[in-house]
Fold this protein.
Amino acid sequence: MSELRPADNGFLRQLRALLPEAAFQADPAAFLTEPRGRWQGRGHVVSPATTQEVSVLLRACFDAQVPVVPYGGGTGLVGGQIAEDITPVILSLHRMAQVRAVFAEENVIEVDAGIILADVQAVAEAADRLFPLSLASEGSARIGGLLATNAGGLNVIRYGNARAQCLGLEVVLADGTIWNGMSRLRKDNTGYDLRDLMIGSEGTLGVITGASLRLMPRPGDEATALFVVTDPAAAVRLLARAGEQIGEAVTAFELIHRQGLAFLAEAGIAHHAPFARPPEWMVLIKVGLSAGQSAQAALEQLFEGALDLVSDGVIAQSQQQAQDLWAIRELIPEANRKIGSISSHDISLPISAIPDFIAKAPCEIGKIGPFRINCFGHLGDGNLHYNVFPPQGSSRDTYLAEREAVKTTVHDLVHSFGGSVSAEHGIGRLKVADLECYGDPAKLTMMRAIKTALDPRGILNPGAVLRHHGDHG
Amino acid sequence: MSELRPADNGFLRQLRALLPEAAFQADPAAFLTEPRGRWQGRGHVVSPATTQEVSVLLRACFDAQVPVVPYGGGTGLVGGQIAEDITPVILSLHRMAQVRAVFAEENVIEVDAGIILADVQAVAEAADRLFPLSLASEGSARIGGLLATNAGGLNVIRYGNARAQCLGLEVVLADGTIWNGMSRLRKDNTGYDLRDLMIGSEGTLGVITGASLRLMPRPGDEATALFVVTDPAAAVRLLARAGEQIGEAVTAFELIHRQGLAFLAEAGIAHHAPFARPPEWMVLIKVGLSAGQSAQAALEQLFEGALDLVSDGVIAQSQQQAQDLWAIRELIPEANRKIGSISSHDISLPISAIPDFIAKAPCEIGKIGPFRINCFGHLGDGNLHYNVFPPQGSSRDTYLAEREAVKTTVHDLVHSFGGSVSAEHGIGRLKVADLECYGDPAKLTMMRAIKTALDPRGILNPGAVLRHHGDHG
């Protein structure tokens, strides 16, 4: 890859001659920060209205060797949407936000990449279908970004991550070529799986402009329970038993630790305490069956057959009770933000290694300092959010010097168990060094070869996922 | 890619110095034909016993620029396992057929790539789990080949194709580098999705030596029904309704045409006729629910609510009855072979386009000749096996001259509906020209760039999927 050139005024004048004025109206300020406020980016926002305009824009950037940062809803947590070193074109898809077609009978919806996730969910619901991807930022995250980062969320145990929801893609390549892969097919073995290569490549191999998405039947009867488990090993066994008894109808299986409830109290966040005395480990389970079956009965049966693993439990008897239970899980991240973590980790582990990891990690972290740990998350996917906090009464700022040691300790341990240091958030710019450190060398060699093959001038999101050739970090 | 060299005696002497004698014991004859008897291949069989030996072998081939054809069970139907033009090393995985580990609690099994599918199914069953991949050749097809071709089969509507069953891979690359991607993780967003790139690449990007596979809960209660539908449009509507009522528990949804029953009779294949007068269109449905629920009741309910679509039906009242119904579906390919098709097509279509396709295709084919059509297959996946036969009393040999016209007519029509000319069999060597003809040009350009990036000397299965650089076909 050769040297990139910044998007300077001369280049912008060139773009204005190629694209309608409407593509240059966005307020740049909104595109230069990210949710955690860690980075301050730079760049000029261009927002095309059609795939053809995206193609024209990329062709111009390719010819001039100007970097392009594809931009969805801006909700990424690893800096994939923020360039700091060189002034890029920020290619926002927000003006491409239409539903292209709904095929309810075949469970397919075709959309522009700039459509917001909540809007896809709503269109699916109007067609009596479910678009199962669901996560905290669903009100602002856009499909293109969700696919580019292979987003996860709450329902992955049942429905898979963003990758599993996608049947086809339309992608504009580095040189402006449009790949029309907007397939509605369930089976198509004609050549390499470029769809899945693009999904999760974080805008470094192409710009997703459209997607053909899979819809699912809506479960007719849902129920939620919060079970007290004796320890994480019991939680893992309960997960296996839930699968044996309830099959694929387990929609969510979330681990909650007492620390999460304590943080809710400490942060003054109102919630319904589910138990008089907060137990140490809980799992929040959601089951969705088809109409005419009883999800509540399935949870009761699970409870009754699991008295060796479960010491107490609440099965929601109403929609309101279910919402109250879910509120606990959904408010924990807010409590975490208010307490202020020293270091947060989005990790995954082989599911049967989770009890060992949860036993060992606090010992290792305890050697660095007297920290508090809030360990919670998507146990059903082996995905934990493992966050480390200062002791009560101290501020995170006191321990900034320990952040790197904490992070390395957690990541080393995860790696030793065969886990991943980025389960659902991606690499972005934050974890490039982690990928280099923990990634299989053959994998990194292949990734670099593919990057060079598909983006020979290195203009697509340079510095994300892989270090840019010119970088010395 | 530069010129390849055949695996001559000098090169074989070199290999014998590098690998144990046991790697050179296989009878080559078994590796030089394929199920349909269309090709007669060439090559020298080498069968390593370890990943390390595969690496040594590939390194030697890379250095000498000798082609390698990776070989699983040899059951592929598109010639992916057969080289005709140059003498390659046939790299058979049959001596690497061990189960490496079973993690029943986390629903994972790790295996060598040479293990036979039926053996994986048996190990899963012994652990009270299901490995859902199931197809006619499961007694001889090997996991490495099934993944390399992204095999489909009967249960795809519920469980997905081979791709969906795989969590991680171990792959030896063209130059002998071993990529250890044997992950047991459900979520891992650290870099490009090389796993799915390897899956379906038909041995042209790397040699799969190991796989980490996902197991599923075993359904506790299963039931099968054969419903008579008024026409293909009713079948598609019934499929949607089955999803709405029964959710993801629909395990199979197969279309059968009267011609299939007629062929069973014509070929003298014994079976239980399900209806006194064979109806024109039928769907065979299998439902699997968890224990304690009634799959039979679910099918009865589906039938009762679908009297606008369904005119008659049999719901199996016993295991034996269910087997009899399934035998009809499973014997049809045998009947087809006995009758002898002029041209067979493994196609997929957007599901809602299927009625139109089924209406139009016979008109187009009728212009070529007075042929009989047996259209059946995995309607739930939009995947039809669309086979064209001579008129009764004539032999296929009479119509060999029409084969190409029939094939082109079917494929052109499939393509015009946004369908695929290879739903589950892959490209191999048989459909290279089809991929060039119907594939999106940007897709082909990307595929070639990736091939060159990962296999710069073009030694891996040359001529499969993509034309080899030196080929002029």
Summary: Chain A touches chain B through 99 residues (CB under 8 Å).
